[in-house]
Amino acid sequence: MIRIIHYLNQFFGQIGGEEKAGIPPEVIQGSIGPGRLINKLMEGKGKVIATLICGDNYFSEKTDEALKDLSKWIVEFKPDLLIAGPAFNAGRYGIACGEICKRVRDELGVPSVTGMSPENPGVGLYKKHVYIIETIQNASGMDMAISKMIRLGLKLVRGEPVEKPSEEGYIPKGIKKNVLSNKLASQRAIELLIKKIKGEPFQTEITFPEVDSVLPALPLRDLRKAKIALVTEGGLVSKGNPDHLESARATRYVKCLIGDLKRLSPEDFQSIHRGFDTQFVNEDPNRLVPLDVLREMEEEGLFKEIFPALFVTTGVATTLENGRRIGKEIAYELKTGGVSGAILTAT
Amino acid sequence: MKLEIQNFEVRNIQFGDKTEYLKGVLFINKKELTDLISEDGRIKEIDIQVAHPGERVRITNILEISEPRIKDGNDDGYYPGIFGRLVKAGQGKTNVLKGSAVLEIGVMPGFYGGVVDMAGEGAPLTPYSKTHNICILTEPTPRIEMVEYGFALKQAGLKTSIYLAETTKGMTPDEVKVFDLNFPLERLKGLPKIGYLFLLHSHGDSREPFIYGDNSRHYYPTLLHPNEILDGAIVCGHYNISVAIKNTTFAILNHPVILDLYERHGEELNFRGVVIAPEPASLSEIRRTAMMSAGLLKDFLDVNGIIITKEGGGHTDVDLMEICEECERRGIRTVLIDNEWLGPDGTGELPLLASSQNADAMISVGNVDGMIDLPPMDKIMGGHTMLDFNGDLQRKINLPIRFIPNAISQLGLTYLTTEEE
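Output (C-alpha cells, whole complex):
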C-alpha cells in the first residue's frame, strides 16, 4: 500500500481563515478535507497516513523553522509520496507547496506533486523543479486536480515514464529535451506550411518568451566629470587567457586590468570568441574595444577618466539566464566603482 | 529543365588493384587515389580508410562530406565552376554512387571537427552512419593558412568524389529518378503554390558556401532552378562552424526540402521554385536582401507560401526574422526551420537570438547545446583526440551534439527536434 503524506494550509486543513495564517506546523494522523478525496480516488491502492498543516504566513515568514519541523515528521512517517495542495491561485500557499515538494524530493528522495493555477507565483518559482498539475483558479476544480495529481503521483512512485505535460496535465517545466521525431524536419515543415496556407489549426515547434524591455539610463548631466568604463562581449582577454574565460557559452565575465595603458596591443591582448572571425581584432584589439580613441578624448578633457579595467565576457550561445546575471554583476561593479557611463561593444 | 539522377547502389567498398564499380561493390586502388590527392602540396600524410554502416567505428575530426558524382554522357565533370567546367547544372544525366560518402578529415586550429559513430546510440543522429564512408585522412603542410587548408581539403574531397564516380560512366544504373517541374497545367490547378527560400551563410572565407564556384557573399538574391541545387551548383565552403549545423555538400546535393517538395509536386502542392539569398553582416544589407527575396518570390514565382531555411549561428536568426516579416507583410505565408540554443540541460529561456510575431510556424531541428552519451568503440578513424574535446575519443564519451555532422541539420535533414518536459 502506498503511504502518502498530504500538505495543507490552515484553510484547507480546516483550522481557520486568514486570522489563523500565523499558526506553526502541526501534524494529524490520517486525512482531512481534500485528503479524504485522495483516499477515495486511490481505491485501496494507498492512503493518506498523515496530514501536515502550516499557516501561510508562518511558512513565508519563518520558512526555515517550518521546514525543519515538517521534514522531521516526514522522515518519521517514511512516505512513498508527498501530495501538496492543490493551492489553486493562492500565492503564499502555492509557494509553500512548491518549496516543500522540492525539499522532500531533493533531500529525502521522496516523489512529490502539487497543483496550482498558471498565474500562481509558485509556478514561476518551482515549475522547473517539481511537477505542478495545472488547476483552475478556485477550489471548484478540486476533484479534477486531485485525480490528475494522483495519476501522476502513482507513476512517480512506481518509476513509470511520465508523458508529455499536455497528456499528464502538469505545467511544462520549461525544459526542452532533444528527441527523435518519426518524420524528417523537412517533411514536418511542408506539412505545417500546407496547414497554415489552408487556414487549418497548426502548432509551431518553437515559441518565444516575453523578453524584458530595458529602459535606457538618463543621459549624463556633465560628461566632463564622467568616469567611463569599457565593457564588451567580444571575448577580449590578456594573451594566453590566464583567467580561462569560456570561448563560447560563457557563464561568467573577467576583469582585464588596463591601468593607464594608451592602447591595447596585439602582443598583450587577444579575442578568444568562437562566434566571429577574430582575425581583425587580433591584429588591432582597439577596434573591438576603442581604448586608443578614448585615451585621446580623455586627454582632451572630453570626460574625466577611464575606469582602469575592462569588463569582458563572451557573447556566443550564452543563455539568457547567464547573460542576465553577468549583466547584473558587471553593473554592480560599475556602480560601486563610481562609473557614470559605460561603452558596450558587441560583435 | 529535366535532370535524371542515375543511382548506382553501393553495397560494399573494398581496396583493390583497380578502381572500379562491379555489381554493387566499389573497388578502390588506394595508391592511385592517394597519388591523385597528393598532387596538392598544401596537404600531406594522406591516407584513405573505409568505414561501413553497423561497424563499431568512430570517425573523428570530420571537416566536410560530399557524395561521389559525375555527369554521364559528356566530359563536363562535376561541381561546375569550382571543379568542373562552368556549365549550367541541373540537366542531363548524373551518376551517383548511392549509399557512399567522401569524408574530409584533418586537424587545424579554428576548424570544427565532427564525430560519426557507425553503430550505437550516436548512429541514428546522423545520415553519415548509413553510408559506406571513404575517409580522406590528411594533415596540413606546416605554416599553411587556415583558409588555404580549407580550399585544399575541398579540392581533395571533390576530386575524390569525381574520381570514384567515373567508374560508373556508361553503365546501367540500379535506379533512375527524374526531376522535372514541367507538369500539365490542369494537374497543378488549384494546388497551393509553394516556394523555397534558401539562405546561404556569407560571413567570409571558411564561413560561406560557393555557388558555381563563387563565394555566396558576392551574390544578391537570385532565382535558381531546384535541379541546379540537386546537381552541384552549390558546394559547402564551411570549415569554421560546428559540423552539426553546417550544410555539407552531401546535404545540399540531397536537399531534403527540395526533394520533399518535388515528391508532393502535382499532388498536394505546386512547387514554384527556389530563391537563394546571402546572409550579409549589416542590418541595412539584411533588410535589402529581405526586400529583394520577397520580391522574387511574390512578383516572379507568385507563391502562396514558402519554407525558409537559414545557415549559420545566432547572427543569422536576424536574417531569418527580417525575411519572414517582409514575406508575411507581402502576403506570403512562411514556415521557418531553425535550431534552438537552450543550454546543455535544455532550460534556456531564449531559443533564438531574434524573434518575430510573424514567425508563428517554426520547425525545431534540436537544441545545439544538448549533450549525448556515446559508448566506447572498437576502432577510431581520424585520431583519438580533437581540439575542442578533452579525453580519448575511443572510450565512452559525453559529447556535445554539435559535434555530430547534420545531427542539427538546418536544411531539415534530421529527425531531431525538441520536446517540452
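The mean pLDDT of chain A is 93.
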